[in-house]
Amino acid sequence: MKAMVLEQFNAPLAWQDVPEPQIGPRDVLIKVAANGLCATDLKITGGLVPTVPLPHIPGHEAAGEVVEVGAEVPGLEPGDHVTVYPTEGCGYCDYCRKGFENYCVTAPRTGFEINGGFSQFMRVSGRNAVKISPEVPWEEAAIIPDAMASVYHALTQKAKVQAGETVVIIGIGGLGIHAMQMARLMGARVIAADVVPDKLQGAEQFKPDVIVNSRTESLPERVKELTNGLGADVVVEGVGGEAVAEILPDSLACLKLGGRLVILGYNYGIPLAVDTADLIYGQWSILGTRASTLQDVVDVVNLVEQGRLKPVVSELYPLEQVEQALARLREAPPLGRIVLQSGE
Fold first, then answer.
1. Which residues does the UniProt record annotate as the domain Enoyl reductase (ER) (predicted)?
2. pLDDT recorded at residue 60
3. First to last CA, the chain
4. Most exposed among 115, 165, 239, 267, judged by the fewest C-beta atoms under 10 Å?
5. Are residues 46 and 105 in contact, defined by beta-carbon separation less than 8 angstroms?
6. Does the predicted model carry a pTM greater than 0.70?
7. CA distance 164 to 168
8. How many of the other CB atoms lie within 10 Å of CB of 275?
9. Topology adopted by domain 2-143+311-341
10. Phi and psi of 143, rounded to 5°?
11. Distance in angstroms (rounded) separating the CA atoms of residues 178 and 181
């Protein structure tokens, strides 16, 4: 089969022949149809993720059609459409037993420690292949386990957003556009903020209560104005990269007493500085969150199938043009997700 292979960090991926994966009794083989791209793919190809081996096939947001099913895998058969939960939890540690596979310290992940979806075929743990309706387009199915389920986990499990609360979403990109939808679905009042006019315009279709261009007006002042001087219950940081540290002061300044800041985006070697007096007197919670649980993915699949959440895909590229897609992501991250489509 063909795959896009990372042979050296900070070098172009190579389209080459590789052996087709062999599955075990608890695995399935899928014919990959689509892969989402996120900023983590830039970190992987750039050699910043220390657990990634070489040579390596990236791709941790994948969806495809089941073509072979292991003898011990129930509920799946050839022809089923699936989206792939990337974390293969050990199943035995305290975290896995409690359903928090994303905390499992020994879990390999597709596209990270084990080969991912930038290929024609992909081995997947049968437990991680989540069936999805054929009515959901491949490009939308692919981004559910990361761009959507990660945000779902952040809002439901970490921030524990309640109906009637005010939630500020900073950064209307691949994560923020989905966080905005989910916060509305949870009954919150949503304030969407960004500095890119096109993204602010794109956010309008999902009907946030207020849209703020934080380049032309003070976001903390606007939030205080909208909340009778109190501030927001929850602020969701969805920008990532080096900008995380830059927007931290404004993020904290938007919070009410006892408010929660959820940090979705990150970069290596970027420390966050917080005045301890402000933290203590503000009684804030600063919450880091990573990935999602398998059940989160199942929940989001159900919401997408019901039409209550919409996966937002901004641009499509053939898999062979992954370098162009990565360059586009590096230069100007779009409103939603960039997706790679696999050919026949």
1. 8-340
2. 96
3. 11
4. 267
5. no
6. yes
7. 13
8. 11
9. Quinone Oxidoreductase; Chain A, domain 1 (3.90.180)
10. -90, 0
11. 5
Alpha-carbon dihedral sign for residues 280, 222, 287, 269: negative
Structure tokens at 269: 């070697």
Give residue limits of the domains in the chain. Answer: 2-143+311-341, 148-288
Tell me which of 61-70, 137-146, 325-334 is least confident: 325-334
Tokens of 5: 């292979």
| DSSP 8-state class, residue 22 | P
Q: Is 42 helix (H, G, I), strand (E, B) or coil?
A: helix
- Angstrom distances, CA of residue 232 to CA of 13, 79, 139, 255: 43, 46, 34, 5
Report the SS3 class of residue 206.
Answer: helix
Helices (H) and strands (E) in the chain, counts: 11, 15
Which two structure tokens, joined as six digits, stand for 212?
Answer: 């703020």
AA letter at 202: G
Give yes or no on whether 2-143+311-341 and 148-288 have one common fold.
Answer: yes
Cβ-based neighbours of 166, under 8 Å, separated by 6 or more: 188, 189, 191, 223, 226, 227, 232, 233, 234
Crossing angle for the helix pair 243-253 and 219-226, nearest 10 degrees?
A: 30
179-183 long-range Cβ contacts below 8 angstroms, 24+ apart: 179/151, 179/154, 179/155, 179/236, 179/238, 179/264, 180/206, 180/208, 181/206, 181/309, 181/310, 182/151, 182/152, 182/155, 182/309, 183/155, 183/234, 183/236
- Residues pairing with 124 in the sheet: 28
Considering the segment(s) 148-288 as one domain, its CATH architecture is Alpha-Beta Complex (3.90)
Give the amino acid at 24.
Answer: G
pLDDT digits (tens, 9 = 90+) for 296-330: 999 999 999 999 999 999 999 999 999 999 999 98
Given a cut of 80, whether residue 344 has pLDDT beyond it is no
* DSSP conformation letters of 169-184: EE--STTHHHHHHHHH
Name residue, tokens 């292949």: 129
